[in-house]
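Example 3.2
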Amino acid sequence: MPRTRSESGAELLVQLEREAPVPLRLQLERELRRAIQTGRLESGTLLPSTRALADDLDLSRGVVVEAYEQLLAEGYIVAQHGSATRVASRRTILDASSKSETAVAAPRYDFRPGLPDLSLFPRRTWLSSMRRALASAPDAAFDYPDPRGVEEARIALATYLNRARATVARADRIVFTNGSQQGIGLVCRVLRERGVRRVAVEDPGHADQCTDIHAAGLETPRIPVDADGLQVDRLARIDAGAVLVTPAHQYPTGAVLAPERRAALLEWAERRGAFLIEDDYDAEYRYDREPVGALQGLGSDRVIYVGSASKVLSPALRLGWMIVPNELMPEVTHKKLHTDRGSSALEQLAFADFVTRGHFDRHLRRTRQIYRRRRDALVAALHEHLPDVRIHGVAAGLHLLIDLPREMDEQRVIAEAERRSIRVYGAAAYRAKPRGAPPALLIGYGALQESRIEEAVAQLARALNSLPAPLPVFPSGGATPRIRTRSRG
């Protein structure tokens, strides 16, 4: 039967088949060679001595010596008299050179939408919260967590969301997830098992979310979006059991779901016995309008609220959450349990400390001012260098949507910008039927330093103006909205 042992110093795992007809020396050579070839043993990795490995694997030292000598002759390992045996660097150099041929250089200016400034993550404050959480956590906190999440974190989050997002949340109705995408996936799987076959989505909308919904075996009929958000009256034409919607800040257009449409959407859900999946992805960042409360606060029995810390803190935390209606809570909890047995309890404990001590609110106030200045700089630069483009979604979020002239080819614009080391993102990727749709670009500003925005837009304008189609003057009815620049938290 297989024998697997590890050397206590260098932690080398090797599997040998004692009953196999292949000699143990050849098996050892093969296992080490494969580990080096696949990168499991990287360049410079310290290998155990022949004596230590022989003792660990219960082999004669001669077998290990012969295996090492063969790998040394082949150039996989290196050894000098009086020094340790290590994995040779030649293999890594070859791997690195092959990868460099296909590597893509990072652009000078990247207008990636939805990405916060990662340098703004409050490292010291978060570390303090993590230390306090670890120091005060009982031993039971290191066991498998409650699949819903740590109770302290659910209480802290419910308090915050009720206060800041006007939700109607209780700790026993909250489920922590590994990001908002996992939450949407869990809900879709539960709905599928309940007999739902279609989840309507916004058009344009988030393409990755459609992929996740499809993975759950559900169809995604598209509902058009206009300046007032989702066109709710279109839902009567399809047989959907749920709708995924971004009411506070539609992605990617930036539209806010109008009050009468909110009421109509909730009425539709009640009448149909359907559910609304509310993706509240960046509602904390608003600049020129009053905050828009969560839809969940108006219809908690039919709305599944989804949020995360990805835009506010960092996507690396993988901290997401849901407020789940009472009817679905047992099934969602069961699905979360059998998916991954619960999200990391330690990050949740740190998050609870971070929220209850007011650090979350202070971080939001600070970053909101920073992003507002970047938004202002971006709009000012667009006014100067591309004065005739229409801008959407100015009032909130971390990105804008700009309409291009209809004569322009969106893909040609993206390619020309890329040639000038500028990365922009076309709206076609978010549309159900991109062919024939008006060209537009998503311009993210969260991760761009304020000092670089003006030059980035100037370079983008040069790219657009270098293309054959000139930029026409738009009708006065579509003029770019002016914004207030007075700082407001």
